[in-house]
Amino acid sequence: MNRFLSTLLSLFALLGSTMAFVPPSRTAMPATTTALPTTSAIHFPPALQRQRKSMAPVQTMSLFGLGAPELAIILIAAAFLLGPSKLAELGKDAGKIAGELKEVPKEFQKGLSEGEAEAAAMRSAAAPAEILEKKEDK
């Protein structure tokens, strides 16, 4: 059990920055003291006005505000919970789904060409009827 915990801790250290789990420091934020409230102070409480400066030049949060390290930890925990047999089964299912998704554009193009052919046939069938109507009107 001790070896498992040490492995898990080293995995956490390798996969993600520990700064992602530390709350923002209040001393690092500039203190703003104004005599008159600004327009943003009226609408938002002071705790929401302060924003933490990001360490990275670009913030790269993706799925539900989770970054790559958090998603990797979730996936590893899911792999431990499911086990190898269930993971193999899920991999096969994912492969089948990917194969079916490759067929979607082909089926779409096929349906589109069939629709165009039907529209052309309807136009060609409607054209002689219009000619007959014009002749009858004269």
UniProtKB/TrEMBL annotation:
Principal location listed in the UniProt entry: membrane
GO BP annotation list: protein transport
**Topology with regard to the membrane?**
Single-pass membrane protein
Decide whether keyword Chaperone is in the record: no
> Organism, per UniProt?
Seminavis robusta
Q: Where in the cell is it found?
A: Membrane
* Keyword annotations: Membrane, Protein transport, Signal, Translocation, Transmembrane, Transmembrane helix, Transport
Q: What are the start and end residues of every segment in region (Disordered)?
A: 112-138
Signal sequence span is 1-20
Biased composition, class Low complexity, residue ranges = 118-130
Name the record gives this protein: Uncharacterized protein
Which InterPro entries does the UniProt entry name for this protein?
A: TatA/B/E (IPR003369)
Q: Which Pfam families match?
A: TatA_B_E
Superkingdom of the source? Eukaryota
GO CC term (a single one): membrane
- Presence of the UniProt keyword Membrane in the record: yes
The portions of this protein that span the membrane are: 61-82
Lineage of producing organism:
Eukaryota, Sar, Stramenopiles, Ochrophyta, Bacillariophyta
